Amino acid sequence: MDYPLRQAGLVHQKNEMPNSDAFDPQLRLDARSGLPEDWRFLLADYPRETWTAHTNLGEHTRFWLSIHRYFRITGVQLASRGDDYREGRISSHEFRTAIAPRLQQFLETLDHHHRIEDHVFFPKFMAADRRFVKGIELLEADHSIVDAEVHQMINTANDLLRTPADDGETLKRVGMAFAGSSDRIVKLLGRHLDDEEEIVVPLMLDRGEGELMGG
Ligand SMILES: [Fe+2]
Ligand SMILES: [Fe+2]
Predict the structure, then answer these.
(1) Which residues are in the CB-under-5-Å shell of ion ligand 1?
(2) Domain 62-213 class?
């Protein structure tokens, strides 16, 4: 079995990331229910239901959206295995076998994705139109919040993976902690991905990938 799980690059350790305390507390990822209208001002011209058929939807954006889809699906699968374990439908052995390889891939893909966004995509979007700066900075702050929860999730997963199979009481306690962390990740990521897409995709469609990405 591939464990302990390795910490990915941990974007939240970077000093230069915007601090989420710099924003209205109601806009924090774990508090908001969406972005202010004027931060997603292109969405009215490019509503979500028109994205997939739009002629300006290029390969970069399609791939990026497919990675978001992977995060949503895998996050729900992990949380679902957590529920199965919490409610006694699978054994601790089945739970460990189900989560370890999938979680490692999920964490590494998420870390890589955040790095590309922070260092490649987001600077280009902010340079394209200064009206996006506030929204993009909030998305960067979201990454810090997600990564802090990821850190927590790795610790609880490793506790679970290291606990001897005959220590039922500890297994139950750490299994519950992991399942709780999975639930929080699904919620945080769901909000972040929806908001990020509502800023980024309309901009991509409006400008076209060639102009925006310099390719
Ligand atoms: Fe992101
Ligand atoms: Fe993203």
Answers:
(1) 117, 196
(2) mainly alpha
Q: Using the mean position of ligand 1's atoms as its centre, give its distance from the Cα of residue 133 in Å.
A: 14
Task: Give yes or no for a contact between 195 and 139, defined as CB atoms under 8 angstroms apart.
Answer: yes
In angstroms, the CA 62 to CA 52 distance is: 8
CA–CA separation, 141 and 135 (whole Å)? 10
CA–CA separation, 114 and 74 (whole Å)? 17
Ligand nearest to the CA of 71: 2
Which of 82, 44, 36, 109 lies closest to 180 in space, CA to CA? Answer: 82
Q: Distance of alpha carbon 21 from its chain centroid, rounded?
A: 19
Two structure tokens written together for 90:
């699978």
- Measured from the alpha carbon of residue 11, the closest ligand is 1
Give the model confidence (pLDDT) of 193-208 as tens digits.
999 999 999 999 999 9
Q: How confident is the model over 159-173, as a mean pLDDT?
A: 87
Residues in the chain: 215
For 63, the token pair is 């791939």
Report the predicted TM-score, pTM, of the whole model to 2 decimal places. Answer: 0.89
pLDDT one-digit tens code per residue, 62-98: 999 999 999 999 999 988 988 898 788 988 778 878 8
> What's the distance, CA 100 to chain centroid?
18
**Look-up of token digits 């189900």:** 98
Cα(114) to centroid(ligand 2), Å: 7
